[in-house]
User: Fold RNA polymerase sigma factor from Aminipila terrae.
Amino acid sequence: MRKNNVDKLIEDYVIKHQENYYRLAYSYVKNEHDALDIVQDSIVKAMSSQHSLIEPDYIKTWFYRIVVNTSLDYLRRQKKVIVSEEEILTSGTGKPDQYEDIDLHKAMDNLPDNYRSIIVLRYFEDLKIEEVADVLGQNVNTIKTRLYKALEKLRIQMND
Assistant:
């Protein structure tokens, strides 16, 4: 496929599904600006590595993988940053609190990244098990096992 065609394909696809990718990034970082940065970084990565998109039919899972990996990279970098108490006290956004499904959000935050990724992609992004496996670069049976374990951990946390 020619470079201009791939550019256009990626551009059209990302624009059409931008809300899904923003929602996915937001589910990892819980911050509007960081989620937008992740989506933007993902687009840059996609454009610079478009040669890795061998089959255009797989653009969905290809770009989801880029967004997931970019989100996880961001979270790893954030763990290395030490925030002082003064920064914590002055970082209020001034927005009203939202309490819908707060228990679920807390339980999701407590899951390991590999379990949380599977739950988010399967239930919040409505991907099929096979697509989740493609996005995460895992075997389908591994995804099924981890999905079962993740749901079990969520169930235990929600009951507590």
Residues 107 and 155 are 9 Å apart (CA to CA). Residues 82-97 have pLDDT under 50 and may be disordered. The first helix runs from residue 3 to 16. The chain has two domains: 1-81, 98-160.
